[in-house]
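Notes to self after the call with IL:
- keep both proteins in one doc
- input above output, always
- annotate only the second one for now

Protein 1:
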Amino acid sequence: MPPVQPMLAKAAKAIPAGMQYEAKWDGFRAIVFRDGDEIELGSRSTKPLTRYFPEVVEALRTRIPPRCVLDGEIVIARDGRLDFDALLERIHPADSRVRHLAEVTPASFVAFDLLALGDRSLMAEPQRDRRSALTAALREATAPVHIAPATDDVALAADWFNRFEGAGLDGVVAKPPDLGYRPGERVLVKVKHERTADCVVAGLRRHKSGPVVGSLLLGLYDGEGRLQHVGVCASFPMRRRAELMEELAPLRMDSVAGHPWQEWASEEAQAADRLPGGPSRWTGKKDLSWLPLRPERVLEVAYDHMQGDRFRHTAQFRRWRPDREPEQCTYAQLEEPVGYDLADFLSAGQD
C-alpha cells in the first residue's frame, strides 16, 4: 500500500563491473500502485502525481497487471528526445490546463522494477528475479508504457552512456543483481555525464544561515551579446562560503542599475531573456532576491547536461579562470551531444 519511498542511487565517477545496468531517465520518478480500477502514482517524495497525468493512468489501466506495484519514471519525449521542461509544465493547479497538456504533450511511463504482483510482495527478492518478473508481467505492454532496457554487459552500458545522451538520457544506473528493494536507501550507483564550462559570475544569493554565499549566479553570453542566466553554483563548505563573500566583495554593486540583469523583476524582461529570480508556481513565496556583482570574473564549473539554454542541475565549482575574459564565456563553448532518437534506445534491446 502507498506510500513507498523509491530506492535511490549514490554518485560514482565510473560504471562499476558486475551489475545490472539501465539508463538514468530524466523525468519524474513514480511508483505505480494498481488494484483493479484504482491507480495511484506516487512521487519520489511520496506525494501524489495521479491528477497531473490522466493519460498515463488510462494507459496503465489497460497495459499492466490488475494488481501490482511498479517503480519507474514518467517522461515526455518530443522530437525524439526527453523534454523535462514539458514535464514541469504538467504540474499545474488548473484541471483544464492539465487535461489540455495531456493531449498536447502526452507523457509515457518507463517501468524498471516490480515491487508486488497479485498478493505477493517482491521487495525481498533479488534484483535479477524482480527484473525477470517485470519483463514477464509487462511482456504485452505497448506504448506509452515501456520496459526500461537493461543489460548485465558493462561494455554495452558504456555504449549506452556515450551514445544515447543525445536522446536526453541522464547517464547510467547500476544495480547489484542480488539486492532486494530497499526503500529510501542510496544503495544503487549512478554515473552521470559531466563536462565543464567557463561562466561569468554575475551575482550571488546569501545563505539561509547568514551573511555568507549561498549560491553564485552564472551567466553565458548569447549570439547577440546578451548575458543570460544559466544556473547556479551552490555546493560549498561553510568556511568556503565565508571566504567567497570576502573574495567577491570588491565586485559588489550598490544596486542593479547598469547590471545586465537589471530588469530581473520585470515579467516582460523575464519573458524575453533568461534572468535570475523569475517568479513561478515552483518558487512560491521563496526569497528570490540576489546581490548583483560586476560581471568581471570567470569561473569554470562542471555540469552534467543542459536543459534547453540552462544547466539542468546545480553546477559544481572547479576553479577560477583569471586567464579568461567574460566576453569569451558564450554558449558556443558548450559541447552538443550527438542526437539520437529516444525510440532507438527503447528498441536497443532488453536483457
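Protein 2 (the one to annotate):
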Amino acid sequence: MDFSIAWQKINQMGRDFMALLPNLLFGLVVFVVFIFIARGVKALVERLVQNRGQSQSLKLLLSRLSYVAALLLGILVTVTIMVPSFTPASLISALGVGGVAIGFAFKDIFQNFLAGVLLLVTEPFRIDDQIKYKDFEGTVETIQTRATTIRTYDGRRVVIPNAELFINAVTVNTAYDKRRLQYDIGIGYGDDIDKARQLIMEAMKGVEGVLTDPAPEALVVDLAGSSVNIRARWWINPPRRADIMGAQDRVLEAIKNTLTAHGIDLPFPTQQILWHDQTEATDGDRKSQREGWPAGKGDVPQSRAEAQQEQQAATNAAAPPEQAEKAAG
C-alpha cells in the first residue's frame, strides 16, 4: 500500500503551518495588545462621561460599546495578520445577502437597541424616576439596551421594550420637584360657601408637607345633585408615590375634622325607593294603590277597571237591542 501521496500532503501541511506560525504568534500578540487597548478605551470613556455628569446607565452603555468596538477592531487586525488574504472588503462581500436576512430577522432587537441608546442619551427619565406607561406605573430600576424594567408600587417587576417607551407617551411623575394634588369635597346647600372655603384652606395649611408656595386653593367646581363641590388643591415636595399618599391622608383627615367641628354638613347621595303595588283591579285607585305615597283626601280618580266598566255600560246602552243582547250574552 502506497503511503507516499499521503505523506507528501502531511509534509506540505506541516510546512504551511510552520510558514504560518510566525503570523499566528504575531496575531495572538496583537490581539492581546488590543484587549488592553479596549480596556483602556473603556476606562477613558467612563472618566469622560463621569466628568460630564451623565447618568450611570449611559456611562455603562458607552463604555461597553467602546470596549466592544475596540475588541472588534482587534479581531479584524488579528485575522488580517494571520490570514494575509483576508480583508475587511472580503468580509463585507461574504456577508452579502446574509447580512440583509440577519437584519430582517433581528429588526426588533436592533430597533429596541437604538431606542435604548436614544433614551439613555436624551434622558426623558432616569433610574429611580417614577413613571407611568399605559397600565403600568412604578419606579425605574434599570435602562438597558433592549428594555427598561420598572418596579410597581405593589412590588412587581415589569419589563417594557425600549421601542415602546420611545414612540409612545410616558408620564414622568418625578420630573419636577413639586406636584399638585386635588380632591373634591361636597358641602350642603344650606352651608356658607365662603366659610367652608376658608376652613378647608386653613386645614390644608396646617398639614405637614403641604407647601405654602404655591399656596393651597379651594375652588367651587360643581353644583351637584346633593352637594356643593369644592375642589381642594395643594402642592407637595417631593412628588414620590409614598409622599403623595401620606400627604393626601393627612389633608383629607384634617379637612373632614375641621368641617365637622364647625358644623359644616358633608352630605352624601340618598335614594328613596317607592314600592309599586299596582294590580289590574286597583290600577288608578289611589285609596288602595299608593305606590309608596299616602292615600289622598277626598275624591280620587277611578281605577282602570271601574272606568272600563262604565265605558262598556255606556256603549251597551247606546247600541240597538240586538247588539246589546249579543254583547251581554
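Annotation: The mean pLDDT is 81. The chain has three domains: 9-105, 121-172, 179-261.
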